[in-house]
């Protein structure tokens, strides 16, 4: 499968994401923030970093990049989209996901290996995991606190749209320890930790993040497009 990885001005992890896509058995297709088409990809990854320097708000300017018009349209038709860290922020700014990401409650940048529990293994990005699986991947953010009103939080919980939850302490003040969520259809997932930094034993926190890239299969993609 062809998975596009978008580079915005200020992206840091697009090369890591491309490598993770390749290790996951797919073809990585570089996409530029100024592109007006998605080059025929089957899915899209919005990587981490500090797009447009995080001016205004994290992801607030990237949301208006030409490529995001294409991503928003494709996501509405069922294309799988994964936003990692800054990519999660962009998805919220684009209203593809509810809520917002705000400054960590302790006002410090956090960088550590983070344990998570996979709460929803039914998305195109998490189907390689068992429901309730506990994994360790890298977390690095300064504005990673997920917030939403109570009604939205209750809806996310009730509809099974919390994809991953922090274990062993909340690293950034995210409400209800939420580390990742999905849209109603399940094809769009935002995740604050970085699975692309945990795909090889040689470096990082091991290979627990690889499942986010091996989960995509033609049958999975076909099911969310139907």
TrEMBL record:
Gene3D superfamilies: 3.40.50.880. The active site is at 85 (nucleophile), 194, 196. Its EC number is 6.3.5.3, 3.5.1.2. It catalyses: L-glutamine + H2O = L-glutamate + NH4(+); N(2)-formyl-N(1)-(5-phospho-beta-D-ribosyl)glycinamide + L-glutamine + ATP + H2O = 2-formamido-N(1)-(5-O-phospho-beta-D-ribosyl)acetamidine + L-glutamate + ADP + phosphate + H(+). Keywords: ATP-binding, Cytoplasm, Glutamine amidotransferase, Hydrolase, Ligase, Nucleotide-binding, Purine biosynthesis. Pathway: Purine metabolism; IMP biosynthesis via de novo pathway; 5-amino-1-(5-phospho-D-ribosyl)imidazole from N(2)-formyl-N(1)-(5-phospho-D-ribosyl)glycinamide: step 1/2. Signal peptide: none annotated. InterPro entries: Class_I_gatase-like, PRibForGlyAmidine_synth_PurQ. It is found in: Cytoplasm. Pfam families: GATase_5. Part of the phosphoribosylformylglycinamidine synthase complex involved in the purines biosynthetic pathway. Catalyzes the ATP-dependent conversion of formylglycinamide ribonucleotide (FGAR) and glutamine to yield formylglycinamidine ribonucleotide (FGAM) and glutamate. The FGAM synthase complex is composed of three subunits. PurQ produces an ammonia molecule by converting glutamine to glutamate. PurL transfers the ammonia molecule to FGAR to form FGAM in an ATP-dependent manner. Part of the FGAM synthase complex composed of 1 PurL, 1 PurQ and 2 PurS subunits. This is Phosphoribosylformylglycinamidine synthase subunit PurQ.
